[in-house]
Amino acid sequence: MTMPHPHLVAVLAGLLAILLVASVIGYVLQRRLSPDGSNAVVENLNDRIRAWWVMIVLMGLALLGGRIGVTLLFAFCSFAALREFITLTNTRRADHWALALGFFVVLPLQYYLIWISWYGLYSIFIPVYAFLLMPIAAALRGDTDRFLVRIAEVQWALMICVFCTSHVPALLNLDIPGYEGRNVLLIVFLVVVVQISDVLQYVWGKLLGRTKIAPSLSPSKTVEGFVGGALSAIAIGALLSGMTPFSPLQAAFLALVIVLMGFFGGLVMSAIKRERGVKDWGHLIAGHGGFLDRLDSVVFSAPIFFHLVRYGWSTT
Amino acid sequence: MRSAGTSLSRALILLLARFLTAVRARWDGAPPTTEQRIYYANHASHGDFVLVLAVLPRRPRSAARPVAGSDYWLKSGVRRFIGRDVFNAVLIDRDRVSRTNDPIAQMTDALDAGFSLIVFPEGTRNSTEAPILPFKSGLFHLAKARPSIGLVPVWIDNLNRVMPKGEFVPIPLICTVTFGTALHIAATEAKREFLARTEAALLALSPKASPP
Asked: Residue A293 — pLDDT band, cuts 50, 70, 90?
């Protein structure tokens, strides 16, 4: 293994410092406001901070592990997300083979294609090949009850959980002149901007949120939270430009795109949860819900960020 | 005494079950206990008892034995190994005409040896649209034979979609296992009343009975 890039080490150290501060604040809040565990907001905040420790340590290890670490981590995220998504769909027994294909063939193959950097195939594999082959597998079982709904759900699940998520490790495949060997920092940029935006939207919202943006979809999202979080995240994106191939202005623009896609992605995923009558996608990450609850904004921004960078900076 | 091979197989099977289903326990009735219990659950898949074992805490888990049909679990070498050796199942003969062992006696023997039991009173896997099949009388006779042991209803949700009857490739889906409050048979309770009461207690745990 080669030595990790100093920028990567610096960012990870910075994140750990932020977490340390957050943990101290969480501890003080708990002592002051919720000594007996009765204040739900404080308890949830502390659950979230604890889960962040796990997520950041895992993410850091994967990034230090380089290509193999990142690809495996996101393949597992795809698996967990797909498991959550399919749990909430209308699939029936007749979809059994189509679903088995999705989990055990399509998902590993997509990540394998990313691994061998076959751009021409991984960028169309699920939108074209899986799109055509999965309904065939379902149709052969002969059950036509709610057929279109079922195959549409499976295709949507694969697009969101596998195709879009896989564009995070795909960032390693870009060939940016003068930036060789540092692509892992593009992932850091994307993930940090998305997650900081989410966290700061939550913080700004809790501090001065008044006006609800989408009361029927996501009652906790407010205009004040969104604007405050987005502006802070864009500023942080610009500050991080030193570790990217972008100028500060370009980095701010890309951060804006990432933040907007992440925000609206969160709304779309909330709409699906609403329709299914659940609050969270799962229960695996204490305080956050499921994998999809944490990934939803990354999922929507990753492919757009990937293609913008590929178009603007990459030679492949 | 368990050999290293069966312990390892047991750990691997439980790990695989958790990987596929991210299974979570909900203790609706009472917190988990090390007391001896008869867990009775709905039955949709051969993996049902694996999921119940996976969510039980360590001590009650090592004291629990599933009760399963010998016609299925003795059919091949692999099944015999998993059912009898790895999970130490109480294998009962479901054929009333040809059987030589009394299933109730086999179960009470295990209870008297201090084990808890995991039983499936529907008697067979449910592949219908109905939430559960009518209980067979076995649960009644078992409760009658050892009335002091608490009967805990256990609802296993979603495993029927993970591995429906007749399929052999499992689909990863999130499952929950809900434990209800322990109940006991009343001294004068008739079979029909008792079965209706235990069925109702189990059904009450299904998420369809109480939308979130």
From this structure: confident
- What was the ipTM of the complex prediction? 0.84
Q: Stretch B180-193: mean pLDDT, rounded?
A: 90
- Burial of B84 per CB tally in 10 Å (0-12, 13-18, 19+): middle
For chain A, the distance separating the N- and C-terminal CA atoms, rounded to the nearest angstrom, is: 25
List the end-to-end C-alpha distance of chain B, in Å, as a whole number: 44
Least confident segment among A90-104, A286-300, B80-94: A286-300
- Domains held by chain A: number: 3
Chain pair A-B, CB pairs under 8 angstroms: 38
Strand partners, B25: B177
Q: Looking at residue B13, which CATH number applies to its domain?
A: 3.40.1130.10
Q: Are residues A114 and A245 in the same domain?
A: no
A133 and A211: one domain?
Answer: no
CB of A25 within 8 A of CB of A206? no
Euclidean distance between CA atoms A267 and A224, whole angstroms: 16
Minimal Cβ distance to B174: which of A87, A91, A97: A87
Nearest C-alpha of chain A: how many angstroms from B78?
Answer: 23
Q: How far is CA B153 from CA A7, A97, B139, in A?
A: 56, 32, 12
Beta strands in B97-193 (DSSP E): 116-119, 150-157, 176-179
Are both A59 and A75 inside the same structural domain? no
User: Is the minimum CB–CB distance between B212 and chain A shorter than 8 Å?
Assistant: yes
Q: Which residues of A touch B212 (CB under 8 A)?
A: 277-279
Sort out which chain A residues have CB atoms less than 8 A from B44's CB and list them. Answer: none
Q: Does residue A206 belong to the interface with chain B, where contact is any CB pair within 8 Å?
A: no
Domain membership of residue A274 as a residue range: 177-316
Is the CB of residue B31 less than 8 Å away from at least one CB of chain A? no
Contact A277 B212 (CB under 8 A): yes
Same domain, A316 and A186: yes
Domain extent, residue B97, equals 4-203
Nearest-angstrom CA–CA distance, A189 and A5: 14
B65 has which bridge partners?
B117
Are the beta carbons of A190 and A305 closer than 8 angstroms? yes
B169 touches chain A (CB under 8 A): yes
